[in-house]
Write a structure and sequence with these properties.
single chain; 458 residues; alpha/beta; Gyrase A, domain 2; Four Helix Bundle (Hemerythrin (Met), subunit A); Rossmann fold; 6-stranded mixed beta sheet; 12 strands
Length: 458
Protein backbone atom coordinates (compact mmCIF):
# COMPACT_ATOMS: atom_id res chain seq x y z
CA UNK A 1 0.00 0.00 0.00
CA UNK A 2 1.26 3.50 -0.79
CA UNK A 3 1.55 6.02 2.02
CA UNK A 4 1.06 9.07 -0.20
CA UNK A 5 -1.19 11.60 1.50
CA UNK A 6 -0.72 14.39 -1.04
CA UNK A 7 -2.97 12.91 -3.73
CA UNK A 8 -6.74 13.39 -3.72
CA UNK A 9 -8.59 10.07 -3.57
CA UNK A 10 -12.20 9.04 -4.10
CA UNK A 11 -14.28 5.90 -3.73
CA UNK A 12 -17.86 4.70 -3.40
CA UNK A 13 -18.35 4.56 0.37
CA UNK A 14 -21.58 2.55 0.35
CA UNK A 15 -22.30 -0.97 -0.88
CA UNK A 16 -22.13 -2.06 -4.49
CA UNK A 17 -25.37 -4.05 -4.37
CA UNK A 18 -27.57 -1.02 -4.92
CA UNK A 19 -29.74 0.84 -2.42
CA UNK A 20 -32.13 3.79 -2.14
CA UNK A 21 -29.24 6.13 -1.25
CA UNK A 22 -25.51 5.95 -1.92
CA UNK A 23 -22.43 8.00 -1.14
CA UNK A 24 -19.09 8.78 -2.76
CA UNK A 25 -16.24 10.01 -0.59
CA UNK A 26 -13.48 12.37 -1.75
CA UNK A 27 -10.52 13.48 0.39
CA UNK A 28 -7.12 15.10 -0.06
CA UNK A 29 -5.53 18.53 -0.44
CA UNK A 30 -7.47 19.27 -3.65
CA UNK A 31 -10.75 17.60 -2.68
CA UNK A 32 -12.78 20.83 -2.76
CA UNK A 33 -11.30 21.93 -6.09
CA UNK A 34 -11.99 18.51 -7.69
CA UNK A 35 -15.56 18.54 -6.40
CA UNK A 36 -16.12 22.01 -7.81
CA UNK A 37 -15.21 20.71 -11.28
CA UNK A 38 -18.20 18.38 -11.04
CA UNK A 39 -20.70 20.85 -9.55
CA UNK A 40 -19.75 24.47 -9.19
CA UNK A 41 -20.64 25.16 -5.55
CA UNK A 42 -19.12 27.95 -3.49
CA UNK A 43 -17.31 27.43 -0.19
CA UNK A 44 -18.33 29.98 2.46
CA UNK A 45 -15.54 32.46 3.20
CA UNK A 46 -16.31 32.22 6.92
CA UNK A 47 -16.83 28.76 8.21
CA UNK A 48 -16.94 28.21 11.94
CA UNK A 49 -19.33 25.32 12.26
CA UNK A 50 -17.99 22.14 13.84
CA UNK A 51 -20.11 20.00 11.53
CA UNK A 52 -20.11 19.51 7.79
CA UNK A 53 -21.64 22.06 5.44
CA UNK A 54 -24.57 20.49 3.58
CA UNK A 55 -26.25 21.89 0.47
CA UNK A 56 -28.21 20.56 -2.54
CA UNK A 57 -26.63 20.53 -5.99
CA UNK A 58 -27.10 18.95 -9.39
CA UNK A 59 -24.55 16.99 -11.42
CA UNK A 60 -24.80 16.22 -15.13
CA UNK A 61 -24.22 12.51 -15.77
CA UNK A 62 -23.57 11.45 -19.41
CA UNK A 63 -26.58 9.62 -20.90
CA UNK A 64 -28.47 10.02 -17.61
CA UNK A 65 -28.98 13.78 -17.45
CA UNK A 66 -29.19 15.87 -14.29
CA UNK A 67 -28.68 14.06 -11.00
CA UNK A 68 -29.83 15.60 -7.72
CA UNK A 69 -27.16 15.28 -5.04
CA UNK A 70 -26.47 16.54 -1.55
CA UNK A 71 -22.90 17.75 -1.05
CA UNK A 72 -21.35 17.43 2.41
CA UNK A 73 -18.20 19.47 2.89
CA UNK A 74 -15.48 19.31 5.55
CA UNK A 75 -13.04 21.93 4.24
CA UNK A 76 -10.33 21.58 6.91
CA UNK A 77 -8.54 19.26 9.34
CA UNK A 78 -11.69 18.43 11.32
CA UNK A 79 -12.70 15.73 8.84
CA UNK A 80 -12.31 11.98 9.38
CA UNK A 81 -9.04 11.90 7.44
CA UNK A 82 -7.68 15.18 8.76
CA UNK A 83 -7.80 16.57 5.20
CA UNK A 84 -10.44 18.51 3.22
CA UNK A 85 -13.23 16.03 2.50
CA UNK A 86 -16.32 16.07 0.29
CA UNK A 87 -19.12 13.52 0.13
CA UNK A 88 -21.76 13.24 -2.60
CA UNK A 89 -25.02 11.60 -1.46
CA UNK A 90 -27.36 10.57 -4.25
CA UNK A 91 -29.41 7.67 -5.60
CA UNK A 92 -27.83 4.36 -4.65
CA UNK A 93 -27.99 2.84 -8.11
CA UNK A 94 -24.61 1.27 -8.91
CA UNK A 95 -24.45 2.72 -12.45
CA UNK A 96 -25.21 6.22 -11.13
CA UNK A 97 -22.53 5.94 -8.44
CA UNK A 98 -19.92 4.60 -10.86
CA UNK A 99 -20.70 7.35 -13.37
CA UNK A 100 -20.31 10.06 -10.71
CA UNK A 101 -17.08 8.45 -9.53
CA UNK A 102 -15.76 8.49 -13.12
CA UNK A 103 -16.42 12.25 -13.30
CA UNK A 104 -14.46 12.82 -10.08
CA UNK A 105 -11.52 10.81 -11.42
CA UNK A 106 -11.62 12.76 -14.69
CA UNK A 107 -11.58 15.97 -12.64
CA UNK A 108 -8.28 15.07 -10.98
CA UNK A 109 -8.79 12.52 -8.21
CA UNK A 110 -7.57 8.92 -8.16
CA UNK A 111 -9.17 5.71 -6.92
CA UNK A 112 -8.61 5.04 -3.23
CA UNK A 113 -6.97 1.81 -2.16
CA UNK A 114 -8.63 -0.49 0.42
CA UNK A 115 -8.61 1.19 3.82
CA UNK A 116 -6.91 4.35 2.55
CA UNK A 117 -9.39 6.74 4.16
CA UNK A 118 -8.82 5.15 7.59
CA UNK A 119 -5.07 4.98 6.91
CA UNK A 120 -5.04 8.75 6.36
CA UNK A 121 -7.00 9.21 9.59
CA UNK A 122 -4.27 7.19 11.35
CA UNK A 123 -1.39 9.06 9.73
CA UNK A 124 -3.06 12.38 10.63
CA UNK A 125 -3.38 11.31 14.27
CA UNK A 126 -7.17 11.23 14.16
CA UNK A 127 -7.22 7.54 15.17
CA UNK A 128 -4.65 5.27 16.76
CA UNK A 129 -3.98 1.76 15.52
CA UNK A 130 -6.41 0.06 17.92
CA UNK A 131 -9.18 2.41 16.76
CA UNK A 132 -8.37 1.63 13.11
CA UNK A 133 -8.75 -2.05 13.96
CA UNK A 134 -12.06 -1.19 15.61
CA UNK A 135 -13.21 0.42 12.34
CA UNK A 136 -12.48 -2.89 10.63
CA UNK A 137 -14.38 -4.64 13.42
CA UNK A 138 -17.42 -2.42 12.76
CA UNK A 139 -17.29 -3.18 9.03
CA UNK A 140 -17.16 -6.95 9.56
CA UNK A 141 -19.38 -7.22 12.65
CA UNK A 142 -21.60 -10.26 12.22
CA UNK A 143 -23.96 -9.54 15.14
CA UNK A 144 -24.89 -6.94 17.74
CA UNK A 145 -22.29 -8.16 20.24
CA UNK A 146 -19.40 -7.88 17.79
CA UNK A 147 -20.63 -4.44 16.73
CA UNK A 148 -20.83 -3.20 20.33
CA UNK A 149 -17.31 -4.51 21.03
CA UNK A 150 -15.93 -2.69 18.00
CA UNK A 151 -17.80 0.55 18.79
CA UNK A 152 -16.53 0.48 22.38
CA UNK A 153 -12.95 0.08 21.18
CA UNK A 154 -13.44 2.80 18.56
CA UNK A 155 -14.61 5.16 21.33
CA UNK A 156 -11.31 4.65 23.17
CA UNK A 157 -11.91 1.51 25.23
CA UNK A 158 -8.29 0.46 24.70
CA UNK A 159 -6.75 3.75 23.59
CA UNK A 160 -7.54 5.56 26.84
CA UNK A 161 -5.83 3.13 29.26
CA UNK A 162 -2.91 2.79 26.81
CA UNK A 163 -2.51 6.57 26.74
CA UNK A 164 -2.62 6.84 30.54
CA UNK A 165 -0.10 4.00 30.85
CA UNK A 166 2.29 5.53 28.36
CA UNK A 167 2.05 8.99 29.97
CA UNK A 168 2.76 7.51 33.40
CA UNK A 169 5.86 5.67 32.17
CA UNK A 170 7.13 8.71 30.25
CA UNK A 171 6.89 10.82 33.42
CA UNK A 172 8.62 8.12 35.44
CA UNK A 173 11.41 7.89 32.87
CA UNK A 174 11.79 11.69 32.93
CA UNK A 175 12.15 11.69 36.72
CA UNK A 176 14.75 8.90 36.63
CA UNK A 177 16.77 10.57 33.86
CA UNK A 178 16.66 13.92 35.67
CA UNK A 179 18.31 12.20 38.61
CA UNK A 180 20.96 10.79 36.25
CA UNK A 181 21.74 14.29 34.95
CA UNK A 182 22.43 15.51 38.49
CA UNK A 183 23.99 12.37 39.92
CA UNK A 184 27.04 14.32 41.13
CA UNK A 185 24.94 16.95 42.88
CA UNK A 186 23.46 14.55 45.44
CA UNK A 187 19.93 15.63 44.46
CA UNK A 188 17.20 12.95 44.66
CA UNK A 189 14.43 13.63 42.17
CA UNK A 190 12.58 10.39 42.94
CA UNK A 191 13.07 7.82 45.70
CA UNK A 192 13.53 4.08 45.21
CA UNK A 193 10.15 3.44 46.90
CA UNK A 194 8.41 5.84 44.52
CA UNK A 195 10.00 4.14 41.50
CA UNK A 196 8.94 0.71 42.75
CA UNK A 197 5.40 1.92 43.44
CA UNK A 198 5.01 3.49 39.99
CA UNK A 199 6.51 0.44 38.30
CA UNK A 200 4.03 -1.77 40.18
CA UNK A 201 1.14 0.43 39.00
CA UNK A 202 2.37 0.18 35.41
CA UNK A 203 2.81 -3.58 35.69
CA UNK A 204 -0.75 -3.97 36.98
CA UNK A 205 -2.12 -1.79 34.15
CA UNK A 206 -0.26 -3.82 31.51
CA UNK A 207 -1.40 -7.08 33.13
CA UNK A 208 -5.03 -5.90 32.97
CA UNK A 209 -4.68 -5.01 29.28
CA UNK A 210 -2.97 -8.33 28.58
CA UNK A 211 -5.78 -10.15 30.35
CA UNK A 212 -8.30 -8.45 28.07
CA UNK A 213 -6.29 -9.42 25.00
CA UNK A 214 -5.94 -13.04 26.09
CA UNK A 215 -9.62 -13.33 27.00
CA UNK A 216 -10.76 -11.89 23.72
CA UNK A 217 -8.21 -13.89 21.72
CA UNK A 218 -9.65 -17.04 23.22
CA UNK A 219 -13.07 -15.95 21.93
CA UNK A 220 -11.85 -16.02 18.34
CA UNK A 221 -12.19 -19.77 18.79
CA UNK A 222 -15.48 -21.45 19.56
CA UNK A 223 -16.71 -22.28 23.03
CA UNK A 224 -16.49 -26.04 23.51
CA UNK A 225 -19.21 -28.20 25.02
CA UNK A 226 -18.31 -31.86 25.68
CA UNK A 227 -21.02 -34.54 25.72
CA UNK A 228 -19.77 -37.25 28.08
CA UNK A 229 -21.21 -40.17 29.99
CA UNK A 230 -21.12 -43.96 30.26
CA UNK A 231 -21.33 -46.12 27.11
CA UNK A 232 -24.75 -46.34 25.45
CA UNK A 233 -26.14 -43.35 27.38
CA UNK A 234 -27.51 -41.72 24.22
CA UNK A 235 -24.67 -39.26 23.61
CA UNK A 236 -24.42 -39.82 19.85
CA UNK A 237 -28.19 -39.68 19.47
CA UNK A 238 -28.20 -36.38 21.32
CA UNK A 239 -25.57 -34.93 18.98
CA UNK A 240 -27.60 -36.03 15.96
CA UNK A 241 -30.72 -34.43 17.43
CA UNK A 242 -28.88 -31.15 18.04
CA UNK A 243 -27.43 -31.16 14.52
CA UNK A 244 -30.68 -32.37 12.93
CA UNK A 245 -28.68 -34.86 10.87
CA UNK A 246 -26.61 -37.98 11.37
CA UNK A 247 -23.33 -36.66 12.71
CA UNK A 248 -22.41 -39.62 14.91
CA UNK A 249 -22.91 -43.36 14.41
CA UNK A 250 -25.68 -44.68 16.66
CA UNK A 251 -25.75 -48.32 17.73
CA UNK A 252 -27.18 -50.45 20.54
CA UNK A 253 -23.69 -51.89 21.00
CA UNK A 254 -21.81 -49.97 23.74
CA UNK A 255 -18.51 -48.40 22.77
CA UNK A 256 -19.43 -47.60 19.15
CA UNK A 257 -17.84 -44.14 19.39
CA UNK A 258 -14.07 -44.60 19.47
CA UNK A 259 -13.07 -41.04 18.57
CA UNK A 260 -14.67 -37.70 19.33
CA UNK A 261 -17.08 -36.14 16.80
CA UNK A 262 -17.44 -32.36 16.52
CA UNK A 263 -20.51 -30.31 15.54
CA UNK A 264 -20.28 -26.52 15.16
CA UNK A 265 -23.32 -24.38 16.01
CA UNK A 266 -24.04 -20.67 16.21
CA UNK A 267 -26.15 -19.87 19.25
CA UNK A 268 -27.29 -16.28 19.52
CA UNK A 269 -24.29 -15.03 17.56
CA UNK A 270 -21.78 -17.09 19.57
CA UNK A 271 -20.07 -20.05 17.90
CA UNK A 272 -20.09 -23.24 19.96
CA UNK A 273 -18.45 -26.60 19.26
CA UNK A 274 -20.46 -29.59 20.53
CA UNK A 275 -18.18 -32.63 20.95
CA UNK A 276 -19.47 -36.21 21.25
CA UNK A 277 -16.95 -38.33 23.16
CA UNK A 278 -16.45 -42.05 23.74
CA UNK A 279 -18.34 -43.51 26.68
CA UNK A 280 -16.42 -43.33 29.95
CA UNK A 281 -15.20 -46.79 31.00
CA UNK A 282 -12.16 -48.63 32.31
CA UNK A 283 -10.06 -49.96 29.41
CA UNK A 284 -6.57 -51.11 28.61
CA UNK A 285 -4.57 -47.99 27.75
CA UNK A 286 -3.09 -49.62 24.63
CA UNK A 287 -6.41 -50.84 23.25
CA UNK A 288 -8.57 -48.81 20.84
CA UNK A 289 -11.05 -48.18 23.66
CA UNK A 290 -8.23 -47.09 25.95
CA UNK A 291 -7.01 -44.60 23.33
CA UNK A 292 -10.59 -43.36 22.98
CA UNK A 293 -10.67 -42.75 26.75
CA UNK A 294 -7.58 -40.58 26.43
CA UNK A 295 -9.32 -38.55 23.70
CA UNK A 296 -12.32 -38.15 26.01
CA UNK A 297 -10.16 -36.88 28.87
CA UNK A 298 -8.51 -34.35 26.53
CA UNK A 299 -11.88 -33.01 25.37
CA UNK A 300 -13.09 -32.72 28.97
CA UNK A 301 -9.93 -30.77 29.86
CA UNK A 302 -10.56 -28.34 26.97
CA UNK A 303 -14.29 -27.98 27.54
CA UNK A 304 -16.08 -24.86 28.76
CA UNK A 305 -19.15 -26.91 29.69
CA UNK A 306 -19.80 -30.63 30.33
CA UNK A 307 -23.10 -32.27 29.36
CA UNK A 308 -23.13 -35.50 31.38
CA UNK A 309 -25.58 -38.01 29.94
CA UNK A 310 -27.10 -40.60 32.24
CA UNK A 311 -29.97 -42.75 31.03
CA UNK A 312 -33.06 -42.94 33.27
CA UNK A 313 -33.08 -46.77 32.87
CA UNK A 314 -29.45 -47.05 34.06
CA UNK A 315 -28.99 -47.87 37.75
CA UNK A 316 -25.41 -49.12 37.52
CA UNK A 317 -23.30 -46.39 35.97
CA UNK A 318 -21.56 -43.95 38.27
CA UNK A 319 -22.40 -40.26 38.34
CA UNK A 320 -20.09 -37.55 37.02
CA UNK A 321 -16.57 -37.65 38.40
CA UNK A 322 -13.91 -35.19 37.14
CA UNK A 323 -10.95 -37.13 35.67
CA UNK A 324 -8.48 -35.21 37.87
CA UNK A 325 -10.76 -34.15 40.72
CA UNK A 326 -12.54 -30.85 41.27
CA UNK A 327 -10.48 -27.65 40.97
CA UNK A 328 -10.99 -24.00 40.04
CA UNK A 329 -10.60 -24.81 36.34
CA UNK A 330 -13.24 -27.57 36.30
CA UNK A 331 -16.03 -26.52 33.89
CA UNK A 332 -19.67 -26.51 35.01
CA UNK A 333 -21.55 -29.79 34.55
CA UNK A 334 -25.15 -30.21 33.41
CA UNK A 335 -26.88 -33.51 34.02
CA UNK A 336 -28.91 -34.79 31.06
CA UNK A 337 -31.28 -37.63 31.97
CA UNK A 338 -31.57 -39.35 28.59
CA UNK A 339 -34.07 -41.92 27.29
CA UNK A 340 -36.79 -40.48 29.51
CA UNK A 341 -39.41 -42.19 27.32
CA UNK A 342 -38.24 -45.52 28.84
CA UNK A 343 -39.31 -46.81 32.29
CA UNK A 344 -37.13 -45.06 34.86
CA UNK A 345 -35.17 -47.03 37.45
CA UNK A 346 -35.61 -46.07 41.08
CA UNK A 347 -32.32 -44.32 41.70
CA UNK A 348 -31.26 -41.49 43.97
CA UNK A 349 -28.70 -39.10 42.51
CA UNK A 350 -26.24 -37.41 44.85
CA UNK A 351 -24.22 -35.21 42.52
CA UNK A 352 -24.54 -31.43 42.48
CA UNK A 353 -25.12 -30.15 38.94
CA UNK A 354 -25.42 -26.65 37.53
CA UNK A 355 -28.49 -27.71 35.54
CA UNK A 356 -30.62 -30.83 35.01
CA UNK A 357 -32.66 -31.59 31.88
CA UNK A 358 -34.75 -34.51 30.62
CA UNK A 359 -34.34 -35.78 27.05
CA UNK A 360 -36.27 -38.29 24.98
CA UNK A 361 -34.59 -40.32 22.24
CA UNK A 362 -37.82 -40.34 20.21
CA UNK A 363 -39.10 -36.78 20.58
CA UNK A 364 -36.97 -34.19 18.86
CA UNK A 365 -38.78 -31.33 20.58
CA UNK A 366 -37.32 -32.51 23.91
CA UNK A 367 -33.94 -31.08 22.84
CA UNK A 368 -35.35 -27.55 22.50
CA UNK A 369 -35.04 -26.65 26.23
CA UNK A 370 -31.40 -27.77 26.07
CA UNK A 371 -30.68 -25.56 23.05
CA UNK A 372 -32.33 -22.57 24.75
CA UNK A 373 -30.31 -23.17 27.91
CA UNK A 374 -27.09 -23.52 25.86
CA UNK A 375 -27.80 -20.23 24.10
CA UNK A 376 -28.30 -18.42 27.43
CA UNK A 377 -25.08 -19.99 28.74
CA UNK A 378 -23.09 -19.06 25.62
CA UNK A 379 -24.35 -15.46 25.72
CA UNK A 380 -23.52 -15.14 29.43
CA UNK A 381 -20.07 -16.63 28.81
CA UNK A 382 -19.48 -14.23 25.94
CA UNK A 383 -20.66 -11.21 27.93
CA UNK A 384 -18.31 -12.08 30.81
CA UNK A 385 -15.27 -11.78 28.56
CA UNK A 386 -13.42 -8.45 28.41
CA UNK A 387 -14.25 -7.00 25.05
CA UNK A 388 -11.50 -6.33 22.52
CA UNK A 389 -11.68 -6.67 18.74
CA UNK A 390 -10.01 -10.05 17.88
CA UNK A 391 -7.51 -8.58 15.38
CA UNK A 392 -6.25 -6.23 18.13
CA UNK A 393 -5.90 -9.09 20.60
CA UNK A 394 -3.94 -11.18 18.10
CA UNK A 395 -1.56 -8.32 17.24
CA UNK A 396 -0.95 -6.87 20.69
CA UNK A 397 -0.45 -9.83 23.02
CA UNK A 398 3.24 -10.34 22.33
CA UNK A 399 4.04 -6.62 22.65
CA UNK A 400 2.24 -6.34 25.98
CA UNK A 401 3.96 -9.50 27.20
CA UNK A 402 7.38 -8.04 26.34
CA UNK A 403 6.40 -4.75 28.02
CA UNK A 404 5.48 -6.49 31.26
CA UNK A 405 8.73 -8.48 31.11
CA UNK A 406 10.69 -5.22 30.79
CA UNK A 407 8.89 -3.73 33.80
CA UNK A 408 9.74 -6.88 35.75
CA UNK A 409 13.40 -6.51 34.70
CA UNK A 410 13.32 -2.89 35.94
CA UNK A 411 12.03 -4.16 39.30
CA UNK A 412 14.85 -6.68 39.42
CA UNK A 413 17.45 -4.03 38.53
CA UNK A 414 16.33 -1.93 41.50
CA UNK A 415 16.33 -4.94 43.84
CA UNK A 416 19.94 -5.76 42.87
CA UNK A 417 21.10 -2.10 42.82
CA UNK A 418 22.18 -2.26 39.17
CA UNK A 419 21.82 1.47 38.67
CA UNK A 420 19.17 3.83 37.36
CA UNK A 421 20.65 3.59 33.84
CA UNK A 422 19.50 -0.03 33.62
CA UNK A 423 16.07 0.82 35.05
CA UNK A 424 15.65 3.63 32.51
CA UNK A 425 16.70 1.32 29.68
CA UNK A 426 14.06 -1.26 30.60
CA UNK A 427 11.37 1.43 30.82
CA UNK A 428 12.32 2.64 27.32
CA UNK A 429 11.86 -0.90 26.00
CA UNK A 430 8.42 -1.11 27.68
CA UNK A 431 7.45 2.25 26.15
CA UNK A 432 8.49 1.06 22.70
CA UNK A 433 6.37 -2.09 23.04
CA UNK A 434 3.37 -0.07 24.25
CA UNK A 435 3.96 2.23 21.28
CA UNK A 436 3.69 -0.82 18.99
CA UNK A 437 0.24 -1.52 20.47
CA UNK A 438 -1.09 2.03 20.10
CA UNK A 439 0.65 2.62 16.77
CA UNK A 440 2.96 5.42 17.91
CA UNK A 441 5.69 3.00 16.79
CA UNK A 442 4.92 1.00 13.66
CA UNK A 443 6.34 -0.49 10.48
CA UNK A 444 5.03 -0.53 6.92
CA UNK A 445 4.44 -4.28 7.29
CA UNK A 446 2.12 -3.72 10.25
CA UNK A 447 0.08 -1.13 8.36
CA UNK A 448 -0.07 -3.30 5.22
CA UNK A 449 -1.29 -6.30 7.26
CA UNK A 450 -4.12 -4.23 8.74
CA UNK A 451 -5.32 -1.93 5.95
CA UNK A 452 -5.18 -4.59 3.22
CA UNK A 453 -8.15 -6.20 5.02
CA UNK A 454 -10.35 -3.13 4.53
CA UNK A 455 -12.71 -2.70 1.62
CA UNK A 456 -12.43 0.24 -0.77
CA UNK A 457 -14.16 3.40 0.43
CA UNK A 458 -13.40 2.88 4.13
Amino acid sequence: MRFDTESTICAIATGTEGAIRGAIRLTGPNAVHVAQQVCNFKVPTKWESRIAIRFPEQVTIPQLGLLDVFVYLWPDHRSYTGQPTVEFHCLGNVIVLQSLQAKLIAAGSIMAQPGEFTLRAFLAGRLDLTQCEAVLGVIHAANDKSLNVALSQLAGGISTPLSHLRTSLVHLLADIEAGLDFVDEDIEFISRDQILSRLSDAELAIANLLSQMESRASQTFQLQVAIVGPPNAGKSTLLNMIGQRQVSIVSETPGTTRDYVRLRLELGGVQVDIVDTAGIEESDLESPRGIAQQFTREQIANADLILYCLSVDDDASVEWQPPHGENENTPPVWLLRTKCDLPAKDRTLHGVYANTLLLSQNRHESVEPLLIALQHWANAKHESVNQVVPITAARCQSSLQRAIESIAMAHEAIAHSRGDEVVASEIRIALEEIGMVAGTVYTDDILDALFSRFCIGK
